[in-house]
Write a structure and sequence with these properties.
Layout lengths: L15 E5 L11 E5 L10 E8 L12 E6 L11 E4 L7 E10 L2 E2 L6 E4 L10 E3 L4 E4 L6 E2 L3 H7 L3 E4 L3 E3 L2 E3 L4 E2 L2 E10 L5 E11 L9 E5 L3 E2 L5 E8 L3 E6 L11 E2 L7 E7 L6 E10 L9 E7 L10 E3 L4 E5 L5 E2 L3 H7 L3 E4 L3 E2 L4 E2 L4 E2 L2 E10 L5 E12 L8 E5 L3 E2 L5 E8 L3 E6 L11 E2 L8 E7 L6 E10 L9 E7 L11 E3 L4 E4 L6 E2 L3 H7 L3 E4 L3 E2 L4 E2 L4 E2 L2 E10 L5 E11 L34
Parallel strand pairs: 10-17, 19-25, 27-34, 36-42, 44-51
Antiparallel strand pairs: 1-2, 2-5, 3-4, 3-6, 6-7, 6-8, 9-12, 11-15, 12-13, 14-16, 16-17, 18-20, 20-23, 21-22, 21-24, 24-25, 26-29, 28-32, 29-30, 31-33, 33-34, 35-37, 37-40, 38-39, 38-41, 41-42, 43-46, 45-49, 46-47, 48-50, 50-51
Length: 627
């Protein structure tokens, strides 16, 4: 083989990149995908040779190779700008050494640098490399945060990429982003899984900041207030805010926050305090407070805290009010009790008040309502001394509803009356005048606690029902019902619900017995036969009878006689049907004889037995014909 030096027409390679690629998929089972940098004179290259050897290095000499693969640049699918080749048929867990050379008509370049890899037996075990988008920081319009459908967040969530050393670019990338991103930092994990089931992940964060706070703190609970005892020289000035803030004060109204020189000793949270000293008897004091939050929103109006210090011997103590003992009563109904009830009236007049200056105070008021309802009512007793100081005390009146000792009243029991034969099931119902649980028994006088039958519907309400089955024809039924209310008041007397099921008729499956008249022979006047209106035939047709074992004698008997009987024998079928629909039948024949038939019956009613001619009276004894 002709070799080319490194200075020949085709320069040697910068390097060989071999990417392990194990595809277990049908139709694409490459063991290794070799990629290398194209030769610097690639426009003159007509192909590449891939050399590889099992177990040991080729030491830069292709003679030492086990295999040589020719890869012409005009091979279908080959990209000369990004040369690569997929090798197959390599052994599992075996170390291979690879090198590549370029060639053209002038010869072959030196081998590239040698690389070695072992084909793993477990297939593709490398997870895809997931690249998360850059972290983003957004500002929400309110404290609810931002939805995942926000344009910036949606772009962030679609910004991840994934590349697998076997499958290449993976487009199916999932994430665990919430549907609503709250204020603060949310970490989103992006995941991609290759066809071998390996999953790679990467994370990025979405930081949602709260909207700009433009509202100054709200101040409350300012202290001290009122008149402090004479001799008080120092107080704690206190105030609270609805958000962390720094508070200041001034003894001059309308001083801007920035100009206030005095800052509360304890501040920065939501409770603020500072010491005010140098107080004197008989003086009034006012401090004007303003606060500023972390967003530099400061109050533009004063929050005023005012108090006095009493003069020497000034009465600033409120009377001591002693309320009566708490009272518990029972009302006769759910309306409670009026304040005029004797026990309540005594309670309301039972408070006392003593002042350290005025002594006993008789005028004691209370805020009791005119009607005290069921439950607990707190009554405040108040007394005011001559200096205007008011003292209070509290006591309670508890009104209980009278204990219910009455069992439920039952009504509207059903069913009743007689049900049709064949009824096997009914729904038994009853109503109560209060919520209750009802039971039943088929034995009278059974105590509620011993009744085994429970109503299945609306137990605990006022409408109760249950199904009673197994009924039989011709039977009478009574169920005895008792109910108990929520206070365990149970009926001691039965509420009886009674009904009947009608007796059923025995099954009639026997047809009536029809008796046909005796067969009839009648002589016609000519050969045309006789009509059914013929007297003898009429009698014949009306002579059938029928008897049923259930209905008895049946009067309606039909027949299939023709309207005109021809010469000869006609069979007539007589039929009768009982009330159960069973039909019985019988037959008889009417034979119409020719007038020339000596055995015929005279339709005029004469018996013809004497052989006389009814028209002439002549008797023909015999007749002989002589030759």
């Amino acid at each position: 083989m002709k070799r080319c030096s490194r200075n020949y027409l085709i320069p040697s390679f910068i390097g060989l990149v071999i990417i392990l690629a194990w595809w277990p998929m049908t139709g694409f089972a490459a063991d290794f995908l070799l990629k290398w940098n194209p030769n610097s004179a690639s426009d003159q290259v007509t192909g590449y040779y891939i050399y590889y050897r099992e177990g040991s290095s080729m030491a830069g000499d292709p003679v030492n190779a086990d295999q040589k693969v020719d890869v012409p640049v005009d091979t279908q699918g080959f990209d000369p700008g990004h040369p690569s080749y997929a090798l197959t048929g390599l052994k599992d867990d075996t170390l291979y050494y690879f090198a590549v050379s370029a060639y053209n008509a002038a010869g072959e370049s030196d081998l590239s640098e040698e690389v070695s890899l072992s084909k793993p037996s477990g297939g593709d075990q490398e997870a895809p490399t997931v690249t998360a988008p850059d972290n983003i920081v957004l500002k929400a319009p309110d404290d609810a945060g931002l939805p995942a459908t926000d344009a910036a967040i949606a772009g962030f969530l679609n910004g991840a990429t994934a590349l697998d050393d076997v499958d290449g670019q993976i487009t199916d990338i999932t994430n665990d982003a919430p549907t609503q991103f709250p204020i603060g930092v949310t970490t989103v994990t992006f995941s991609a899984t290759d066809q071998a089931g390996n999953t790679g992940t990467a994370q990025a964060t979405v930081t949602i900041s709260a909207p700009q706070d433009n509202t100054a703190p709200v101040l409350n609970n300012g202290r001290p207030s009122g008149t402090l005892p004479a001799g008080t020289t120092q107080v704690d000035l206190q105030v609270t805010t609805n958000e962390p803030a720094t508070c200041r004060w001034s003894d001059t109204a309308s001083t801007a926050y920035a100009d206030m020189a005095a800052t509360f000793d304890t501040t920065g949270g939501t409770s603020h305090s500072t010491t005010i000293d140098g107080l004197a008897n008989g003086q009034s004091y006012t401090r004007y407070v303003r606060c500023m939050d972390a967003e530099n929103n400061a109050n533009s109006d004063d929050y005023t805290i005012s108090w006095d210090v009493a003069v020497e011997d000034q009465d600033i103590q409120a009377p001591v009010v002693t309320a009566p003992a708490d009272l518990t009563l029972t009302a006769p109904d759910s309306n409670g009790l009026p304040a005029t009830d004797a026990a309540i009236a005594a309670f309301l007049s039972g408070a006392t008040a003593v002042d350290d200056v005025d002594g006993e105070i008789k005028a004691i008021t209370n805020d009791a309502p005119a009607q005290l309802p069921i439950g607990v009512t707190t009554v405040t007793f108040s007394a005011t001394d001559q200096a205007g100081n008011t003292g209070t005390a509290h006591a309670t009146v508890t009104i209980n509803a009278q204990q219910d000792a009455t069992a439920p009243v039952l009504s509207d029991g059903s069913p009743s009356g007689t049900f049709d034969a064949g009824t096997t099931q009914v729904t038994m119902r009853v109503s109560t005048d209060e919520p209750a649980t009802c039971r039943w028994s088929d034995a009278a006088g059974t105590a509620y606690a011993d009744m085994a039958g429970a109503f299945t519907t609306d137990a605990g309400g006022t409408g109760h029902s249950t199904v009673i089955d197994g009924l039989a024809d011709g039977q009478s039924y009574t169920r005895y019902v008792r109910c108990a209310d929520a206070n365990a008041n149970a009926n001691t007397d039965d509420f009886a619900i009674s009904w009947d099921v009608a007796a059923g008729n025995p099954r009639d499956d026997q047809a009536p017995v029809v008796t046909a008249p005796a067969d009839l022979e009648v002589t016609a006047a000519d050969d045309t036969g006789l009509p059914a209106t013929n007297a003898a035939i009429v009698t014949f047709l009306s002579s059938a009878t029928a008897m049923d074992d259930v209905d008895g004698s049946i009067g309606v008997i039909s027949n299939d006689a023709p309207s005109h009987f021809p010469m000869g024998a006609t069979t007539v079928t007589f039929s009768a049907t009982d009330s159960a629909g069973n039909t019985g039948s019988a037959q008889a024949t009417v034979t119409v004889l020719s007038p020339n038939d000596p055995a015929g019956t005279d339709t005029t009613g004469n018996d013809g037995g004497s052989g006389s001619d009814s028209s002439s009276g002549c008797f023909i004894g015999s007749m002989a014909m002589q030759p």
